[in-house]
Design goal:
The radius of gyration is 23 Å and the shape is globular. About 70% of the residues lie in helices and about 0% in strands. By secondary structure, the chain is mostly helical. α20 runs antiparallel to α21. Among the domains are: about 90 residues, no CATH class; about 55 residues, no CATH class; about 120 residues, no CATH class.
Length: about 450
């Protein structure tokens, strides 16, 4: 990435002088005129507090990951152990050889920690959770910068502190040794970067966007449901302004292809067929569409919880097993179309409100669902209200949020959800909720002032 790109994107993480920030603001990408010419320093305390809060929680939770059952069925942990011990990228459910069930980036990061601190040791688990806490804390930066750039300084502070103290951000940073926190950070950066590209003619900067997008795709391929659309919307905005768009877009595509292609080639050479980053969609569709509707997913059909499924996986091999699971899932859907539609609707509600069922058996297994429903529903309502207000003043930015909210969770509606699947877009939800709150505060202040003048 060239100097011009670093000034606009990467140096925004560390620059503290008002002159540099004023130059960044000169891009004029958003309609808001409330952005103040101040340095980047205000987000540093937010990041520090976010990190300290998450790290303070880690000691109370890390032992859960040392449970033998958890370690034996921790997909990223198993593959990272395989890498760290020299057996390659594999052995995701059992010692069965190469796999493409999970994407590579986080597994390699975890393998590096295992080599430094030992495989499945308390130190390596704490290091993994500390790294995730760092990723989660750093997410405050793009959240703060996006809100300050396009909304207001007050909204930036509310959004930054909102994410720093977010229950979801804290919990998944301190107690979720998965790729969730990393992809959350990458998606927030890509969202911010896509906004800045509206005024950028630098092929290097567009290339860098593609490279980061490719890295995000290899972290969790679900980002491919939104990042290309965000880039496409940027290109459409440039086209409307008669600005160059095709060659920058080609540079972004090239950057993404260069990053993703080696993994696709590895999968083709290993499994002798094209696998779009990961191979597990058939299994995900299968465990989400069965006769059991008590939960949002039937874990008894997963190789981690079923000896019969594991034997079938071992006997057929990964690609044949996944193909069979996809056929079985589609057959169930064809035979129960009404039930499938009903379940899709329940998934949509669950993803945005946290509500699945008030069945006593279900709640006995998910005791935190009731408070989670209140938190999730409140954030969704405030975010939608914030989006409505944003749409009235900056429709172009509003479209970007609609793209993410509409397409990011789409695949989960039709396969199955998990509690952590929507978490990568939580910073954007928090940002809109913060915007709504600050707009209400401003409206009340104006009303109080007008009433005082009137009296």
């Amino acid at each position: 990435m060239g100097c011009h790109a670093r000034t606009k994107i990467l140096r925004s993480w560390f620059v503290v002088s008002s002159d540099q920030v004023s130059a960044t603001q000169g891009l004029g990408l958003c309609k808001s005129t409330q952005v103040q010419a101040i340095g980047a320093r205000p987000y540093l305390p937010i990041v520090l507090v976010a990190l300290l809060v998450r790290l303070a929680v880690v000691p109370f939770l890390y032992r859960d990951w040392l449970d033998p059952f958890v370690l034996e069925h921790w997909a990223f942990g198993r593959v990272a152990r395989s890498l760290a011990t020299g057996y390659g990228f594999g052995n995701v459910f059992a010692d069965t050889g190469p796999t493409a069930v999970i994407p590579p980036v986080y597994a390699y990061l975890l393998a590096g920690l295992f080599r430094l601190f030992g495989t499945y040791t308390p130190a390596s688990i704490v290091a993994a959770l500390a790294l995730n806490s760092l990723f989660s804390a750093l997410t405050c930066i793009p959240v703060f910068l996006l809100a300050r750039r396009c909304l207001s300084q007050r909204a930036a502070k509310w959004a930054g502190w909102g994410w720093a103290l977010s229950p979801y951000g804290i919990y998944y940073g301190a107690d979720w040794a998965w790729s969730t926190c990393l992809v959350t950070l990458l998606l927030a950066l890509l969202f911010l970067w896509a906004v800045t590209l509206e005024k950028s003619d630098s092929a290097t900067e567009w290339l860098g966007f593609g490279v980061l997008g490719g890295l995000a795709a290899l972290t969790e391929p679900v980002v491919l449901s939104v990042v290309p659309l965000l880039a496409l919307w940027t290109c459409a905005r440039r086209w409307r302004r008669n600005k160059l768009w095709l060659s920058p877009a080609m540079a972004a595509i090239l950057g993404a292809v260069v990053v993703i292609a080696p993994w696709l080639l590895r999968n083709y050479r290993t499994f002798h067929e094209f696998i779009p980053i990961r191979s597990g969609f058939g299994l995900e569709l299968y465990i989400g569409n069965s006769a059991d509707s008590l939960h949002w997913v039937d874990r008894s059909l997963h190789p981690n919880h079923s000896d019969a499924e594991l034997r079938e996986y071992e006997q057929l091999g990964e690609t044949a097993y996944m193909a069979r699971k996809e056929r079985q899932a589609k057959q169930y859907i064809r035979e129960h179309p009404a039930k499938y539609v009903y379940r899709v609707l329940r998934r949509i509600i669950y993803m945005w409100t946290g509500f699945w069922s008030f069945d006593r058996r279900y709640l006995s297994e998910e005791p935190l669902d009731l408070p989670n429903i209140l938190l999730s529903s409140a954030l969704t309502i405030m975010a939608l209200a914030g989006l409505r207000e944003l749409w009235q003043v900056n429709e172009a930015l509003g479209v970007r949020f609609v793209i993410v909210f509409a397409f990011f969770p789409l695949v989960y509606y039709f396969s199955h959800p998990e509690t952590y699947y929507l978490r990568p877009i939580d910073p954007l939800i928090d940002l809109l909720a913060a915007y709504f709150v600050t707009q209400r505060i401003a409206a009340r202040a104006r009303y109080a002032k007008a009433k005082t003048v009137g009296d």
